[in-house]
Design goal:
2 domains; 16 strands; 18% strand
């Protein structure tokens, strides 16, 4: 009897041990770990880490591990990691690249139980999500949403006899204002610039959009960059340096010049609000919508954005929850204040707190008028437009030949990208 009792106890203990192990495994499985990659700036890193802490409090069954990667190294690390199946669960990529990544099989659509297509379409600004839908499903939510606006220094306006409450409204006016603020020493060396674009691709393409250049051939599904309107806009950008001499690259970085109050106006993304506040807290600046080509003309600019996406290997529901959290209305409000990223949710654009903010109000208006980039090739986000600009400013090429080169290279880049995006 005693032996039977011992055997029964032994069997009971063994059963309890097995049940305990199974229970432990079950509990372990409940804890989903998501590795999130973010291209690095100090402000963004701090923001995402704070979001992760808040998210994990609300979702104790999900752990977020943040890896902030310098932007210069981001894609060199991301692409091999995804190819090896060891990459992040959630990460950010340019909106135009979502199709390529999805067709390559490294992304999965957002979990419809968390964020369905109808809901996303209703909540977000159309231009911010246009590139994120594939075959009726969304593969990401927008982040780093930017337009182009005009930053200007009211102190330099006053010193030049200009009214800081009346920023330039046309291309002619912006040149007139820039000339008034440009200063040179007795040797003819530029001591203060009036206006700068830096030849930045989104600025050049924005000028083309304003001027009525098509940029895209919908029928062919390819860039359309060789037009008289595109050439006129590129000529305007180049003349800022070549003809009017109100921008001088010998002064170095336009950002440093603006921080040092040696630049009156600069075309820039609203994200520079966060950069200027972080680096020069006492700098006083204002923002206006970009000047139109002519009175009453277009103030539309290029809408550039990235997307938070979910890798094919990630736990779908948990990853979509995290991506949705990062792009929620509350999160976007925090992005605005900390980094200057514009909201992509429709409901935020007309909030009184932004309409009454002298810095943010013009940014919100620019968001309403912005046009999403139609291309997929990342080279068209900046490099090719910048190269076309430099053909004129550095090599003396005509605007007509520069846009002809831009058109040819743009089509080539898009066709190469199209091949990569094939299933």
């Amino acid at each position: 009897m005693k032996g039977k009792t011992m055997r029964a106890l032994t069997m009971l203990c063994a059963a309890m041990l097995v049940l305990g192990l199974v229970s432990g495994v079950s509990l372990a499985k409940r804890k989903v770990v998501l590795v999130h990659w973010q291209h690095h700036t100090p402000a963004r890193k701090e923001m995402v880490e704070a979001f992760a802490a808040d998210f994990m409090k609300a979702n104790p069954d999900i752990e977020i591990k943040i890896e902030s990667v310098p932007e210069a190294d981001y894609f060199q690390k991301l692409l091999p990691a995804l190819a090896a199946g060891s990459g992040p669960d959630t990460f950010q990529i340019p909106a135009g690249q979502v199709l390529t990544y999805a067709r390559a099989g490294v992304l999965q659509p957002l979990d419809a139980s968390v964020a369905n297509a109808k809901q996303i379409t209703a909540d977000f600004v159309p231009g911010s999500i246009e590139r994120l839908m594939i075959d009726g499903k969304y593969y990401g939510l927008p982040v780093d949403t930017q337009t182009i606006v005009l930053f200007y220094n009211p102190k330099l306006f006053r010193e030049a006899g200009l009214d800081p409450d009346k920023p330039p409204q046309t291309w002619d006016e912006v040149i007139k204002y820039a000339k008034a603020m440009t200063k040179r020493d007795s040797a003819g060396v530029t001591a203060q610039m009036g206006l700068a674009t830096g030849g930045y691709g989104p600025v050049i393409s924005s000028l083309m959009i304003q001027n009525g250049a098509p940029l895209w051939d919908a029928k062919a599904g390819l860039p359309d960059l060789d037009s008289p309107k595109a050439a006129e806009a590129l000529q305007f950008a180049a003349d800022i340096m070549i003809t009017h001499k109100v921008e001088d690259t010998k002064m170095g970085s336009r950002w440093n010049a603006f921080r040092q109050e040696k630049l009156g106006m600069v075309y820039a993304h609203p994200a520079m609000i966060g950069s200027f506040r972080a680096t020069v807290p006492d700098l006083v600046f204002k923002i206006a919508e970009v000047p139109a080509p002519k009175a009453g003309g277009s103030k539309s600019t290029l809408l550039s954005s990235w997307a938070y996406v979910v890798s094919a290997k990630a736990q779908s529901e948990a990853a979509t929850k995290w991506v949705a959290f990062l792009t929620s209305a509350d999160a976007q409000k925090k992005w605005i204040l900390s980094t200057g990223d514009l909201p992509s949710r429709k409901a935020l654009l007309d909030l009184s707190e932004y309409r009454n903010d002298p810095l943010l109000a013009p940014c919100m208006e620019s968001m309403k008028k912005a046009v999403p980039a139609p291309w997929t090739a990342r080279q068209l986000d900046d490099k090719l437009f910048r190269d076309a600009y430099q053909l004129m400013t550095l090599k003396g090429e005509t605007a007509q030949n520069a846009v002809k080169w831009l058109a040819s290279e743009g089509i080539k880049a898009e066709e190469e990208q199209r091949e990569l995006a094939k299933p």
